Amino acid sequence: MPKISIIIPVYGVEKYIERCAVSIFEQTNKDFEMVFINDCSKDNSEVILLDVISRYKGASIDVRIIQHEVNKGISATRETGLNKAKGEYILYVDSDDYIAPNMVELMVARANDTNADIIYSDYYDLKNGELIYQNQSLSVRDPLLITASMLRSEIVWTPWNKIFKKSLATVHNIHWPININVGEDLVVMSKLFANAKEIEYVNQALYIYNRDNVNSYINSWSVSSCQQSIKAVESVNAFFSDEFPNADLIKSLDKVKLASRYQMLYTFDKNLYKLIPDTFPETDDKIFTFENTSFYWKVALFLVVKKKTILATSMTRAIFLLKKTRAFIQS
């Protein structure tokens, strides 16, 4: 049994799949299997992938390509990989990203030393060709405190800079949510972290996250995406209320809940606007504390919450036009 199953969803990544696959084949520790899931990609991703695999046919690595008969989205694709994995630990790698040559080596070493349920690391953002170091260190060690920090966005809740025991998901019946492809990682990682007995951290950047791929799953924002995100947050909120009735964990979700309300605002969709007052109303008194948006958006959300929808709509469109004008002038 391999120590790690590396699961790589494949969809529309012909520009990046070679770099991703090569970075995995070139690992300094080969105690892993590679499980690619083709989610009905319409481009040449699989052709390029097969070429890379043929170049490494002498490598003692088990490589599988699993085909979806229909496009299912990122969440179901990750679930397929989880179900098919043979390794003790799971590592997800998005196929437009890549990993450091020693990622498996360092993760396996820490796993062997500690037998931790989850191990996570620092990572790089790759933006406009520049690598930007993202430190993920925390001062806490308790799994529930780490979970709370993750909910507050102090560390990322993405699955790709982490390995976790497959048995952790199996024992606690944790699955990737079907029909939720935005915020699905929050749902799964929250449950894994909260149920973990030990979580370890490697203070090196071992994953390179590509922010330049405009065709990635997460860069396709829409009203539907917004609705899926809300479902994800509601799912996490219900999970902690039922399984971990800890006020600190629920309170730690406030930032994520507020972000969901602002995302509803950014769609300019009148039907969504009508739902905002009743969506996470417990964050009404925190609207102006949200750090990741301008004062004008805060006022707009406040007006929507107070059901001054027409005024809020006019204001949000004015903000949008102002940004467009500035972008045009600067171009």
TrEMBL record:
Top-level taxon of origin: Bacteria
Keyword terms of this UniProt record: Glycosyltransferase, Transferase
Residue ranges of domain Glycosyltransferase 2-like in the record: 5-139
GO molecular function list: hexosyltransferase activity
InterPro entries named among the record's database cross-references: Glyco_trans_2-like, Nucleotide-diphossugar_trans
PANTHER family per UniProt: GLYCOSYLTRANSFERASE (PTHR22916), GLYCOSYLTRANSFERASE EPSH-RELATED (PTHR22916:SF51)
Name this polypeptide is given: Glycosyl transferase family 2
Lineage: Bacteria, Pseudomonadati, Pseudomonadota, Betaproteobacteria, Nitrosomonadales
